[in-house]
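Data card: per-record layout.
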Amino acid sequence: MKTTVPMSPATRKRLGYESGAALMAEGPQVLHEHIATKIGKALGSAIPQMDVRFSNLSVTADVVVVDDDNTKYELPTIPNTLKKTFISPQKRIVRKEILKDVSGVFSPGKITLLLGQLGSGKSALLKMLSGRPMSKNITVEGDITFNNVQREQILKTLPQFVAYVNQRDKHYPVLAVKETLQYAHDFCGADLSDHAKKMLSQGTPEENDEALRAASAMFAHYPDVIIQQLGLQNCQNTIVGDAMTRGVSGGERKRVTTGEMEFGTKYVTLMDEISTGLDSAATYDILNTQRSVAHKLRKTVVIALLQPSPEVFALFDDVMILNEGQLMYHGPCSQVEGYFESLGFKCPPQRDIADYLLDLGTNEQYQYQVERPTKQPRRASEFADAFRESHIYMESMYALEAPYDPELLRSMEQNMNPMPMFSQSFIDSTLTLLRRQLTITYRNKQGSSQCNVRLIAGLRPRQ
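The structure for this 463-residue chain is written out next.
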């Protein structure tokens, strides 16, 4: 039988500043703890953080509906074809409710799971909180504040604070994985800013020097750190590719999408369906890293997933459940089973907790019903009404209306108000953009030349 000899302290890998691999030598949790400790001492206060509050948030969309039922099933005869060509079907505008009176708080230092069926309003909520541009047919009501500042007041600089990971992968296919991440880092400011250096001066001279060394090393090697965290080492020099160009796999491309939005000085991270194409082990590792980011670096992290495994579900502090745009639950993960059991629904031992929660408010909920003196809620609106009468909702409202922590307000004044709209200057941004475009243009021409050679070789007559 082979025995395992433990590594001695002298041979064990230690965290270092010379490369991304050295920074990640002891894992992301140790790295985040190390950075948080060093920076916290130099700041003389807590790490900058952001509290997100939204009250009575409603989103509606004006959708054009075509009434074409009369000709839908007609035979394709000449008269019917002419009728469809010259007589346009009637159109009418229907108002669709996407979010209905949703209120809540996403606090720093917590990681929240956003659950809901397709069309439940998850993506709409994340887009609203991230400040993404909305279509003209969208109407928004309600208040959204970041550290007691209205969303509209910081809308232009909001992308500097809030990272939003889209569920669609959009990349330049001819760029390699490492190049894609490096350009994202460059556009967000690849060097430690003068403002950040000034803020890291509230400790002792030794503490300030250590914090500057740690922060500078993170900025210098951040693309490599992200590659290590997301497990992209083996494909970092492979082009990303797309549907027409062979590159990395779909799961690796999804990890590139996640990593691309990690750069910059972000206090809030919003992720929409990042597990698509990933296996359970990769999903767990990525979300475990995000949990460490939330807990150690005091970030506000909200992640929308469709069907998380029990192991992934256990990583989250809070869970928010949306159904048909209505809020069915928002509170601690540890209390969610007990809450719905009090409404007359019990999760079977063989059923995953996330699947059980997603079935509530649908036709699948009957399999979980237990005997109860009063009638169980059926529709999403009934679940929303029941939640508004719960003590968990009351605690959420207390948090929503509570005075802001003076530390958050001071953080807003010192770190967020001076933030410029863009991380790079106009000249630096133009040079980075030009360098990237020249690379893309050269590789596209190179690919076109190879295609032409292959085409000519294929058309050559056989001897």
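Known properties of this structure: Confidence is low (pLDDT under 50) at residues 1-12. The beta strands are 52-67, 90-106, 111-116, 138-146, 149-150, 162-165, 268-272, 300-304, 318-323, 326-332.

See the next section for split statistics.
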